[in-house]
Amino acid sequence: MLIGELSRRTGVHAHLLRYYESQGLLKPARGPSGYREYTHDAVLTVVQIRKLLEAGLSTQEIALTLPCATGTAPDLEPCPELLAVLRARLRDLDTRIDALLKSRQALRDHVAAAEGRAGRAGEGLGSEAVPGCR
């Protein structure tokens, strides 16, 4: 099948399919006319790529993951290299989530402090003007 048909079957734009090819995730053959020709397995591969992207994996990580993938979920064989990649990505996400939680709490504290000052300003406390603050 040509790239347009693969795009229609998967709902993925042709430019993304070409990007996946450039990342080594899809490997179409070239027909006599020079057009990309995909096998029917490419539909499953694209579905797997999309699901792995949704899980937060990079295309480089997906390249390591695809050989261990089966089915549309995809189901992953417990390859040692794959587990190491997935665990590293999970640690990275946990670290980023922790940082975001700390940022959220700091922002809540700032909001609460500003709201507290606003309440005191109404009582005649802290009513001095801050340049640039209205």
From TrEMBL:
Chain ranges passing through the membrane: none
SUPFAM superfamilies in alphabetical order: Putative DNA-binding domain (SSF46955)
Pfam (any one): MerR_1
Domain HTH merR-type: 1-68
InterPro entries assigned to the protein according to its UniProt record, in alphabetical order: DNA-bd_dom_put_sf (IPR009061), MerR-type_HTH_dom (IPR000551), MerR_fam (IPR047057)
Signal peptide segment: none
PROSITE patterns for this protein: HTH_MERR_1 (PS00552), HTH_MERR_2 (PS50937)
Keyword terms: DNA-binding
Name of protein: MerR family transcriptional regulator
Organism lineage string: Bacteria, Bacillati, Actinomycetota, Actinomycetes, Kitasatosporales
